[in-house]
Each structure stands twice: as structure tokens, then as C-alpha cells.
Design brief:
This protein is mainly α and 177 residues long. It is 80% helix and 0% strand. Helix 2 runs antiparallel to helix 3 and helix 6 runs antiparallel to helix 7. The longest helix is centred in the first third of the chain and has 17 residues.
Length: 177
């Protein structure tokens, strides 16, 4: 895998010397760097790609995801928001990642709205269901509401460990009330 990524990196770097304004090359090289966990370098290349006619949703999404990997959620927010707003195909993962960064930033009202939107696109999106339970609890401190969403998440995917753990934890919290 590493050798393949290295060869791809060399290929795209050479392509940039031939056509230094080619947004697709910037984007593809950024993807290589992202996959090598070279997030800062990837962000710079994605930003250069954005200056061209490159697909805006994907590029904004990847910049947001790179910032997420760096745990720079405030920096990720505008890119993921832009990707979600431009997303005409209603890609559940694009929409979900925007909702997730809203949760990370404790913007629970907006996160709840966004995660509910994800579930209108894909009612079986287990991560959206799980995070909706968490966001609702953080906003309202309603254990029953959270448990309902965790149960639904476990029904969707019985192997979803986060939902299983949350269901056990919140059920125990409810018993101790």
C-alpha cells in the first residue's frame, strides 16, 4: 500500500509540473497525502484545487475531513457546511459529517436538525441514529429519548459497539435515578 501511494504521489507531482493549474491533479495528490495521513499538506492541495473547476462538494468535504483528522473542528465546520449545502445528491455521509462536527462543537440544536436530516436520506444510518441520541441527551438531558435512539441504532446494527455501550450505560443511569 505504501509503495503504491508513493508511486501515485510521484506521478501526480510530475503531472503538476506539466500542467500546474490542473485542479484534478491537485485533488488527486491531496487524496494521496490524505491517505498517508499528511493532512496539512492535503489541505493545502485541496484548497488549491478549489480555485479551479474541481467538484466543489467533494473538495470541501475532504478539506473538512482533513481538519477533522487534526481535531480542528472549528476549521472543519465551514467546509463541511459548504459541502452539505452544495450536495444536490443528498449524500448521507456528507450530511452526516456536517452533523457530527456540529456535535463536536456542541452546537446541539443545529446538530439535531442535521442528524434528523441524515435519517430522512438514510433511515438506517446507524452512526446518525447513535449521535442523534447523544445530541438529544446533551441538549435536553432526557435519558429516555437517548435510550430510544440507542435501541434503534442497535436494531439497525446489533454489532454497533458504541450504541451497545451507550444503551447499557444510559439504561444503568436510568435505573439509578
Amino acid at each position: 500500500m505504501r509503495m503504491r501511494l508513493k508511486r501515485q504521489s510521484v506521478f501526480f507531482q510530475k503531472a503538476l509540473t506539466i500542467d500546474p493549474k490542473n485542479g484534478v491533479v491537485f485533488y488527486n495528490l491531496a487524496n494521496v497525502y490524505y491517505n498517508q495521513q499528511r493532512y496539512q499538506e492535503a489541505i493545502k492541495l485541496y484548497q488549491q484545487a478549489l480555485q479551479t473547476e474541481i467538484e466543489q462538494v467533494d473538495c470541501n468535504y475532504m478539506i473538512g475531513m482533513a481538519f477533522n483528522q487534526l481535531e480542528s473542528f472549528k476549521l472543519a465546520l465551514p467546509y463541511l457546511m459548504t459541502a452539505a449545502e452544495l450536495d444536490k445528491d443528498k449524500d448521507a455521509e456528507v450530511q452526516f459529517q456536517y452533523g457530527l462536527v456540529l456535535c463536536q462543537l456542541e452546537m446541539f440544536n443545529e446538530a439535531i436538525t442535521q442528524l434528523k436530516h441524515v435519517l430522512t436520506i438514510d433511515k438506517n444510518h446507524v452512526d446518525a441514529r447513535y449521535n442523534l441520541g447523544l445530541a438529544l441527551f446533551m441538549k435536553n438531558e432526557d435519558i429516555d429519548e437517548a435510550i430510544t435512539h440507542f435501541k434503534e441504532a442497535v436494531t439497525i446494527d446489533p454489532k454497533h459497539l458504541l450504541s451497545q455501550h451507550a444503551l447499557k450505560t444510559f439504561t444503568k443511569m436510568k435505573e439509578e435515578e
